[in-house]
Amino acid sequence: MLLLDAFLNRTEDWQDPESARQEVLASLAEDRISRVNLDDSGLVLGWIAGISMYGGRVWELHPLVVSRSYRRRGIGRALVEDLERLVALRGALTLWAGSDDENGETTLGGADLYPDIPGAIRSIRNVGHHPYEFYLRLGFRIAGVLPDANGRGKPDIFLAKRVDDDRVRTDAHRRQPASDVK
Q: Which of 40, 45, 101, 160 is least surrounded by Cβ atoms within 10 Å, i.e. has the fewest?
């Protein structure tokens, strides 16, 4: 299972087939968006889901996962751009994602952030292949950090992006690689 494989031993979530299955089923709710990227044989290469918040003005990207053997091929980017387009068409202004640092992959991990949270955000560095830089390349900005969200020294990094811009809808509309799983 894609979700289980990608997050095994990286987070407390989705460490067994049943919890991963429940996450997939939850993504199929009427008020959510769930999209997959398939190869020609029907193999799932990537999956993204979105959750509406704030009356539909904000959507949470949760989760995004790409098969290990297909990473760095544009699949994650295509899935995010597709979700941006879909939420913008539903009237969203913002798409956000939380990207936990539970394994000390950034300079925020393992640190006491409370003395200077803004300073910690300004000086963040990637020291272990944390995905926050992927989101930055897609135009997201770090909007905040929740220190100790996953235990002492294990913050959640909040990234956000405006999606109501006409360029987002137009550019993403040209590329529709994902298919709706509903």
A: 40
Which two structure tokens, joined as six digits, stand for 25?
């089923």
Q: Is the dihedral of CA 117, 106, 146, 139 positive or negative?
A: positive
Question: What is the DSSP pairing of strand 32-38 with strand 179-180?
Answer: antiparallel
Q: Provide Rg for the chain, Cα atoms.
A: 16
Instruction: Give whole-number Cα distances, 148 to 14, 61, 138, 182, in Å.
Output: 20, 21, 26, 36
Cβ-proximal residues to 32 (8 Å cutoff; 6+ apart), any chain: 26, 49, 50, 51, 52
pLDDT in tens, the chain (182 residues): 776 676 656 667 766 778 888 888 888 999 999 999 999 999 999 999 999 999 999 999 999 999 999 999 999 999 999 999 999 999 999 999 999 999 999 999 999 999 999 999 999 999 999 999 999 999 999 999 999 999 999 999 999 999 987 654 455 455 445 555 44
